[in-house]
Specification:
flat, mainly alpha
């Protein structure tokens, strides 16, 4: 009898989760629109709004002036000899008692 009640509880939880996923998938956009409308209707905090400076949006094209682009330094070219220098690879230490996986362990 205990096993039957556990199975019924598990099926009830699965049905509730499936129902919630269905509702969100079907009505998600409408829920978001409703939530935005409700949040917009709440009164604003007067102490936060008065003391905070108003942020002004500036388009990206106007934010970067043409003069700044012209004054930017040219790309520095690295000689091929310096570019070929390899970075040292850290050595991986494995103790004798630690198992090590081979390529054959990952083959399907």
């Amino acid at each position: 009898m205990k096993a039957l009640t556990k199975i019924v509880k598990i099926l009830t939880v699965l049905a509730a989760v499936a129902g919630a996923v269905y509702v969100v998938a079907t009505y998600g956009e409408q829920i978001v629109a409703w939530a935005k409308k409700v949040l917009a209707s709440f009164p604003k905090c007067p102490s936060c709004c008065e003391s905070a400076p108003q942020a002004q949006e500036v388009p990206v094209a106007q934010a970067v002036s043409e003069e700044a682009v012209e004054e930017a330094p040219a790309a520095v070219e690295v000689p091929a000899e310096e570019a070929a220098v390899e970075t040292p690879v850290p050595e991986i230490l494995v103790s004798e008692n630690e198992p090590v996986a081979d390529e054959a362990d990952f083959a399907e």
